[in-house]
Amino acid sequence: MGTQVPGDQNPDVPDEFSEADRKKKEIDDWLPITSSRNAKWWYSAFHNVTAMVGAGVLSLPYAMANLGWGPGTVILVLSWVITLYTLWQMVEMHEMVPGKRFDRYHELGQHAFGEKLGLYIVVPQQLICEVGVDIVYMVTGGKSLQKIHNLVCKDCAPIKLTYFIMIFASVHFVLSHLPNFNSISGVSLAAAVMSLSYSTIAWSASVHKGVQPDVEYGYKASTTSGTVFNFLSALGDVAFAYAGHNVVLEIQATIPSKPGKPSKGPMWKGVVVAYIVVAFVLLPSCSSNMFVVIHVIGSYQIYAIPVFDMIETLLVKKLHFRPSRKLRFITRNLYVAATMFVGICFPFFGGLLGFFGGFAFAPTTYFVSTSFLSCAIKKKNEI
C-alpha cells in the first residue's frame, strides 16, 4: 500500500490524521535536512570531500611524526579502507526499511537501539563531533586569516587572534541563513576544491624540496609514557581526519529516491569519488592559508546544518514554535555566536583534535555503523 498524500480524502482515515499529516509535511518542508531532495550524485561527492578533508588533515604531519612512518602509513591506509566500508554500511541502511528513509544519524540509532536509548547513545556523540568541529574551524579560520595578514603586511602592528576569529565568524552570520544542504552546494564545492588545492601545494612543495640532510625520523618523546601518549593522541588525529560519517545520512537525505531507483545509487557514486579524492589528499601534508580559510568556511556549514536541524526540530516539534524566518534567524545567529565565543575564549581548541577524534569521531566513524547494522539485522530476524 502506497503512502497517502497529505490532504487526500480517505473515508477510513479521520480528518485529524490528515491535518496532522499536513502539519508534519509543512515542518519537514521547512527543516534543513528534509526541505530539498533534488540533489545529484556529485553533490554527495563534494559534500563528503568537504566533510572529511577538514582541520584534521592539517594535523596529519604531526600525527605521522608521533606514529612513525611505518605504523603511520599502515594506520592511514587501514583507516581509509575501514571508514569506506562503514560509510558504505551507512549508505545501504539509509533506506533499509521499505517506505522509510533514515534522514538523520540519530533516527538510524533509534531504529537500532530503541527510541530513547538511540537518542542517548547517538545525539551526544554527534553533537560533540559537529559542534566541536565548528569551534575548531572558528579557531583555524581565524589563525589562517592572521597568518595571511602577517604575510601581506609585515610592517603592520600585530592584531589579536580574537579579531580574526570575529572576522571569520562574520561570514557565517550570513552563510548560516542558507536554508539547507543544496543551497550551500556552491560553498561546499569551493571548499572541496580548496582542500585539494592546499594539499597539492604542500606535497608538491615537499617533493620539489627533496630529502633534507640530518633529518631524524624517530619518536620525539624522550620517555616511554610520552611516546605512548603521543601515539594515542595521533590515533585520535587520524580518526578526526577521516570524519564525515556524522553527516552522511543528512547528505543522502537530499538525494531523491524512487521505487527501483533508491538514493543509495547516486550517493555511493559520490562517496567513491570523494574517497578517491580523500586518498589523494590525506596522505600528503598541507599548509596553504588562503585555501584553508575558504575550505573551513564550507566545512563549518556542512557540520552546522545537522545541528541547525536538531535545534529547529526541537523548537518546532517539541516546543511547538511556529516555523518562521525569525526563528531561524535567531537560532542560527546564536549558534554562530556561541561557537565564535568558545573559539575566542579557548584559542587552543584546535589542540583538542586528538581528544575529539578518539572520544567521538572514532566511535561514530569506525564502529557505530556496524552496531547499527547488527541491531537492525537482529530486529529483522526476530520479526
Automatic annotation (TrEMBL):
<feature type="transmembrane region" description="Helical">
    <location>
        <begin position="355"/>
        <end position="377"/>
    </location>
</feature>
<keyword id="KW-0813">Transport</keyword>
<comment type="similarity">
    <text>Belongs to the amino acid/polyamine transporter 2 family. Amino acid/auxin permease (AAAP) (TC 2.A.18.1) subfamily.</text>
</comment>
<keyword id="KW-0812">Transmembrane</keyword>
<protein>
    <submittedName>
        <fullName>LYSINE HISTIDINE TRANSPORTER-LIKE 3-RELATED</fullName>
    </submittedName>
</protein>
<dbReference type="Pfam" id="PF01490">
    <property type="entry name" value="Aa_trans"/>
</dbReference>
<dbReference type="GO" id="GO:0009734">
    <property type="term" value="P:auxin-activated signaling pathway"/>
</dbReference>
<feature type="domain" description="Amino acid transporter transmembrane">
    <location>
        <begin position="38"/>
        <end position="282"/>
    </location>
</feature>
<feature type="transmembrane region" description="Helical">
    <location>
        <begin position="161"/>
        <end position="178"/>
    </location>
</feature>
<feature type="region of interest" description="Disordered">
    <location>
        <begin position="1"/>
        <end position="21"/>
    </location>
</feature>
<feature type="transmembrane region" description="Helical">
    <location>
        <begin position="41"/>
        <end position="63"/>
    </location>
</feature>
<comment type="function">
    <text>Carrier protein involved in proton-driven auxin influx. Mediates the formation of auxin gradient from developing leaves (site of auxin biosynthesis) to tips by contributing to the loading of auxin in vascular tissues and facilitating acropetal (base to tip) auxin transport within inner tissues of the root apex, and basipetal (tip to base) auxin transport within outer tissues of the root apex. May be involved in lateral roots and nodules formation.</text>
</comment>
<dbReference type="GO" id="GO:0006865">
    <property type="term" value="P:amino acid transport"/>
</dbReference>
<keyword id="KW-0029">Amino-acid transport</keyword>
<feature type="transmembrane region" description="Helical">
    <location>
        <begin position="184"/>
        <end position="203"/>
    </location>
</feature>
<keyword id="KW-1133">Transmembrane helix</keyword>
<feature type="transmembrane region" description="Helical">
    <location>
        <begin position="267"/>
        <end position="284"/>
    </location>
</feature>
<keyword id="KW-0927">Auxin signaling pathway</keyword>
<dbReference type="InterPro" id="IPR013057">
    <property type="entry name" value="AA_transpt_TM"/>
</dbReference>
<feature type="transmembrane region" description="Helical">
    <location>
        <begin position="69"/>
        <end position="88"/>
    </location>
</feature>
<feature type="transmembrane region" description="Helical">
    <location>
        <begin position="290"/>
        <end position="308"/>
    </location>
</feature>
<dbReference type="GO" id="GO:0015293">
    <property type="term" value="F:symporter activity"/>
</dbReference>
<keyword id="KW-0472">Membrane</keyword>
<keyword id="KW-0769">Symport</keyword>
<feature type="domain" description="Amino acid transporter transmembrane">
    <location>
        <begin position="289"/>
        <end position="371"/>
    </location>
</feature>
<feature type="transmembrane region" description="Helical">
    <location>
        <begin position="329"/>
        <end position="349"/>
    </location>
</feature>
<dbReference type="GO" id="GO:0012505">
    <property type="term" value="C:endomembrane system"/>
</dbReference>
